[in-house]
Specification:
single chain; 438 residues; alpha/beta; Alpha-D-Glucose-1,6-Bisphosphate, Chain A, domain 3; 14 helices; 38% helix; 20% strand; globular
Length: 438
């Protein structure tokens, strides 16, 4: 069995690599490991979702654990219900990947993603279940009506009764999970909604739309003269925003805007925001100017969550658009983040695009992936001299980051500098150094 847990569950080509047998074994492993006699399960809109969800339920049933089927829902809805009912959960989704892929994320009771230690235990149980087999128990999932109403109500309640009446908002649901919640939430808040990519057919998820293809949203915001636009990924746990000027506001800027607004409202716990090593240098400079402290983690929203909980902080996230409002949720939530951001815009009486452009100055950032024959355990030592040379050239106006992928034999080389040409040249020199190790 080649599939293993990475930094966020397991993800692969559906039905060929991520097979029903594998998913049954994972269902059995989850049932053996996660506390509770019921596992809450949701999925996104991929064609393979129903079959793999049934397989997961069959595996769990073989261990005497029941499944509460939420049907097609956002990942954060699964996490919220796990938190509300203190039950473990599973989400079948490959996030921003194409429709041919699928994956499974697991949540512990209470709605948090699993720690590295928890994932190791699941992996050991998975190996055992896959090799030893398990009795097949026929299960036919059925969705309970209104199963995510509590989650939807909680997102609406997060703005304390304020209204978006008079605003025009464009929403791009990526033909994914947000199509079940986003439009309803914004309309209940009073906004006029232009809804895009909200007709999933099993194969059009993320296809030229969503947070990884914001150009579709940009055009619609300008066409409809909208106040703002928000695009989500396939399972709606991350976001890209677009101002009325049609410019994209990425995760770094969204987090910066949230941090500044929370600081001004005394709602930024310990005056600190949590970010990852990929966060732009311009963000760090801006936070220093705003007298906001920064805590840095490795790449992955679950590491951000761990740091948030360890320090008792309230806001953190990633450049990719995973944003965690820890006082409101246990995981990144694209729709909740959109609601919080637009509420801040209205309260402050600003144009979202203008605020997003001014909140920080972004340093040019160049990222290259170098595929290797195998992982190198002493990569940092082998590249130490090359990295030191580039850092000396950049001085205080740049940054170098080299890291190995957690799921494949790829080395990611990233350089930030004051000028794009400088970042590009530095990145190429480091790429050459990495390739020399192959």
């Amino acid at each position: 069995m080649k599939l293993r847990f990475g930094t966020d569950g397991v993800r692969a080509e559906a039905l060929t690599q991520l097979t029903p047998d594998f998913v049954r074994a994972l269902g059995a492993a989850a049932a053996r490991t996660l506390e509770g006699d019921t596992i809450i399960v949701g999925r996104d809109t991929r064609e393979s979702g129903p079959e793999l969800q049934r397989a997961f339920a069959e595996g769990a049933a073989s261990e005497g654990v029941a499944i509460r089927d939420l049907g097609v829902v956002p990942t954060p809805a699964v996490a919220w219900i796990c938190g509300a009912d203190d039950l473990p959960g599973a989400m079948l989704s490959a996030s921003h990947n194409p429709w041919q892929d699928n994956g499974i994320k697991l949540f512990s009771a209470g709605g948090k993603k699993l720690s590295d230690a928890d994932q190791d235990v699941i992996q050991a149980q998975l190996d055992q279940a896959y090799e030893a087999g398990y009795p097949l128990v026929a299960v036919e999932p059925s969705v309970a009506p209104g199963s995510i109403d509590g989650y939807i109500d909680s997102v609406i309640a997060s703005v304390d009764g304020r209204s978006f009446t008079g605003s025009t908002i464009v929403l791009d649901s990526a033909n994914g999970s947000a199509s079940t919640t986003a439009k309803q939430i914004f309309e209940r808040l009073g906004a006029t909604v232009i809804s895009l990519a909200d007709e999933p057919d099993g194969r059009n998820i993320n296809n030229g739309v969503g947070s990884t293809h914001p150009e579709f949203l940009q055009a619609a915001v300008l066409e409809h003269d909208a106040d703002a636009g928000f695009a989500f990924d396939g399972d709606a746990d991350r976001i890209a925003a677009v101002g009325s000027d049609g410019e994209v506001i990425d995760g770094d800027r969204i987090i910066a805007m949230g941090a500044l607004d929370r600081r001004d409202r005394n709602a930024l716990a310990h005056n600190t925001v949590v970010i990852t090593v990929m966060t732009n240098l311009g963000f760090r400079r801006a936070m220093a100017d705003y007298d906001i402290s920064v805590v840095e983690t490795g790449v992955g929203d679950r590491y951000v969550l761990e740091a948030l909980d360890a320090g008792g902080f309230s806001l953190g996230g990633e450049q990719s658009g995973h944003v965690i409002h820890r006082d409101l949720a246990t995981t990144g939530d694209g729709v909740l983040t959109a609601v919080q951001l637009f509420d801040a815009v209205l309260r402050r009486g600003v144009d979202m695009g203008e605020w997003g452009s001014s909140v920080m100055t972004r340093f040019p950032q160049v990222l290259e992936n170098v595929r290797m024959a195998e992982k190198l355990p002493n990569l940092k030592e082998l590249l130490a001299d090359a990295v030191a040379a580039e850092e000396a050239k950049l001085g205080n106006d740049g940054r170098v980051l080299i890291r190995e992928s957690g799921t494949e034999p790829v080395v990611r080389v990233m350089v930030e500098a004051a000028e794009l040409d400088e970042a590009t040249a530095s990145t190429q020199r480091l790429v050459d150094a990495v390739e020399a190790l192959r």
